[in-house]
Amino acid sequence: MAETLTATALTLKDIAREAGVSLATVDRVLHNRPGVRPDTVRRVQAAIERNAFQPHVAAAELARGRARRFAFMMPSGPNPFMQQIEAYLGEMSAWLSARRLSVEMVATDVFDPSVLAASLETLSGDYDGVAVVALDHPGVRAAINDLVDAGTKVVTLVSDVPSSRRHHYVGIDNIAAGRTAGALVGRLAGQRSGKVAIVAGSQGLRDHAERIFGFNQVMASEFPALSVLPVLEGRDEDDRSEQVLARLLGKHTDIVGLYNVGAGTQGVAKALSDKALSDAGRDKVVFVGHDVTVLTRRLLLQGVMDAAISQNPGHEARAAVRVLLALARGEPILREQEKIRIDIVMRDNLP
Question: Which CATH superfamily is domain 7-64 in?
């Protein structure tokens, strides 16, 4: 009697070896293809049942030699959160290789709709799936739709274009994230009255626009003593974010709160620090931003930043690949597994 194999180590090759047949024969049995003698089919099925084997689609694809290419279109420039996503994708190399997948990074200016649309157009026909950090703009929408029409599976990552025909969005509920930021700024400001500044990368990015919308909802309905100033745009760049915020702080001496919607955090913190030095003795500006990076961790520990609205970059990287793979295979997406959670991180609960 054949010895039962260890479930954790079980592969198609193990089943083939136990049944005394070739890997191709096991593949034929699993997919009910003709050309296998009845007694051989029974022997393979017995080995499968004896080991409670659940054939993985990836293993079957390995036997057939099916390989797929995915592209991740990411923002050019030093965005720490996006760099974390790229790093996690790099750590998935063994997982990707086991499924005959390759993931390639394509950097572009996501703040310029014509550049982003042109970059998307260059991917047509070369990839099975594309994940894109997208600007919500008619030209970008058209480029996404063209990719879909050409048979490419498209997932928007972090920032959505819901009016396009993209197949799925991987990211947090950004309106809820903005509402969370508004509640934090309002409550941490306490009984003070004054103005609140907002620095965004671009209001053309759907995630930034939705966060601002949610933030303004809460500020208007729950904190009438706080007046929100017009949104500043820093393109997620440190220097530009510092410059636009420094000018605003120079014009308004009664700013008590700040919401940094995207990146450019180092520049925002520099402008705040310079203002604090010149206004020694004044109350600290409540500062809420996004994501836990090396920089935001340091700012939280120093007390410069009060809270970060966090999303898990590793989860987003894995979810985007899993969703693209499910779409390419025609399998259902496990929506609950791929749902990205919003976390509130402060100095006292830093992970």
Answer: lambda repressor-like DNA-binding domains (1.10.260.40)
Task: Give the least confident one: 206-215, 226-235, 274-283, 319-328.
Answer: 274-283
- pTM beyond cutoff 0.70: yes
Mean pLDDT over each residue of the chain, to the nearest integer: 89
Assigned token pair, 17: 């070896």
Complete DSSP assignment for 215-239: HHHHHHHH-TTEEEPPPEE-TT-HH
Contacts of 256 (CB under 8 A, 6+ apart): 189, 192, 193, 194, 195, 196, 226, 283, 285, 286
Q: What is the pLDDT of residue 41?
A: 87
127-140: average pLDDT: 95
- In eight-state DSSP terms, residue 304 is S
pLDDT score, position 6: 43
Write the DSSP assignment of 22-88 as a string of letters. Answer: -HHHHHHHHTT-S---HHHHHHHHHHHHHTT----HHHHHHHHT--EEEEEEEESS--HHHHHHHHH
Position 331 confidence tier, pLDDT thresholds 50, 70, 90: confident
Mean pLDDT along residues 171-188? 97
Nearest alpha carbon to residue 308 among 343, 258, 348, 271: 343
CATH number of 174-310: 3.40.50.2300
Q: Does domain 68-170+313-340 have CATH number 3.40.50.2300?
A: yes
Report CA Rg, the chain. 25
∠ CA(321), CA(323), CA(328), 5° rounding?
95
Q: Where in the chain is the domain with CATH 1.10.260.40?
A: 7-64
Residue where the block lists tokens 């279109």: 73
Q: Measured in whole angstroms, how far is the alpha carbon of residue 24 from the centre of its chain?
A: 38
Helices and strands (DSSP H and E) totals, the chain: 15, 12
DSSP category for residue 285: P
